[in-house]
Design brief:
The chain is mainly alpha-helical and 149 residues long. 44% of the residues lie in helices and 5% in strands.
Amino acid sequence: MRINAFSDVCLRVLMVLCADPGAELLTTKDIAGAVGTPYNHVSKAVLKLGNLGLVDAVRGRAGGVRINAAGLTVTVGSVLRALDEREDVAECHAANGDCPLIGGCGLRGALGRAREAFYAELDPVAVSSLARPRRSGPVAVTLATRPAG
């Protein structure tokens, strides 16, 4: 299985926000820089995550985004399920006509079960467990020129 680019951006946004849940509001621009994704893609992801009830967004000059309680406990599997808008993994139904084998084909069901197994494997993984704390400022380094003593 492969997740789409939008799901990837959404997971990245959640991970950035989970890295420091008590932090001040982060702007969409700051998040875009942190996840290495264009601002407009991150804006769409933040809107969708807000609609899913996983983040709180405050509009205006002093606004920004923060993770909420639901976002701190959500699992990767449930996020991917919520973002997956495809009916079929395969193109059984297409604008130019349905697959001629659709009536007697077992592939559609097998692929559906495989997709669900993929999500089920990710159900126990909380997004917050994947986030690494952000470092602010330089890391202090202590150098010793000779052993103590």
